[in-house]
Amino acid sequence: MKIASWNVNSLKARLPHVERWIAESGADVLAMQEIKLLDEAFPHLMLEPTYAFRAVSGQKTYNGVALLAKRELHEVTFGVPGYDDPQARVVAGTVDGVRIVNLYVVNGESVGSPKYRYKLEWMARVRDYLAAELARYPEMVVLGDFNVAPDDRDVYKPERWREKVLCSTPEREALQSWLALGLHDSFRLFEAGPGHHSWWDYRLMAYERGWGLRIDLVLVSDALKPRVAAAGIERAPRTWERPSDHTPVFVELAPRP
DNA sequence: ATGGTGGTGCGACCA
What is the set of active-site residues of A? Predict the structure, then answer.
């Protein structure tokens, strides 16, 4: 089962890319972030031929997440129970017995800003949510746009990003508190080196210059780790015309033994 | 270099 995540930066603007990529990628599950449209504007007819099962948490102009699957999505939930967050950032469902939690983590704007404080509060709430989900569903994938580069290997020029938003110590510690629940960064099960990125700023020709960060992650739980057959970043869509600033990332799970 | 580009939607916002 191939499970992918992609911050599409507007599903309306990116629909041609999404259709092209799902045909090429063969993903069984696709988690999207920043769809930036209301539920009623979701292009079900365009995506239904590939993904018969869809869970959408839309929002006008900003945020919005969706979970698409070829096989049945069970136990779909939206948001974090008990956390009244007006922003559409969380959708979860179960496919073939694997819990899949799709997150669009708060960006945070800049260290110390009100949005940064919201980010840290949000990440603390989501830690508790993930702990509760893991207790119910030991086989779990947590994926999405994390808006945190886990460590300096994930940053093209760590000095330039030192203690800046996406790389600051409190954000990294919040992410580590998630990993401490028994989650693993699937990409790092296969690749230990630097120079692997999933997001490049639109400005200053950052992609062409290799100025990227790895902030889109696929975490797998302890119980699922033995089934991880591959993990990676699919860079091609970032080279297409009028791309998202993020490119898809994925994990492949071997069949249950 | 405190800029730069892109999406939404038509003026600021958010990233």
Answer: 104, 145
In total, chain A counts a number of residues equal to 257
> Per the structure block, which two tokens stand in for A238?
């970032």
* Nucleotide with C1' nearest the A114 CA: B14
Report the C-alpha gap between A183 and A219 in whole angstroms.
Answer: 6
Separation between Cα atoms, residue A41 and residue A58, nearest integer Å = 9
pTM of the model: 0.98
- CA A70 distance to own-chain centroid: 18
Question: Which residues make up the interface with nucleic strand B when CB must lie under 7 A?
Answer: A 9-10, 12-13, 36, 60-62, 106-107, 109, 115, 147, 202-204, 242
| Strands A29-33 and A2-7, sheet pairing | parallel
Structure-block tokens of residue A41: 């504007």
- How far apart, in whole angstroms, are the C-alpha atoms of residue A186 and residue A183? 9
Structure confidence by residue, pLDDT tens digits, A72-81: 999 999 999 9
Geometric angle at alpha carbon A116, from A173 and A171, rounded to 5°: 10
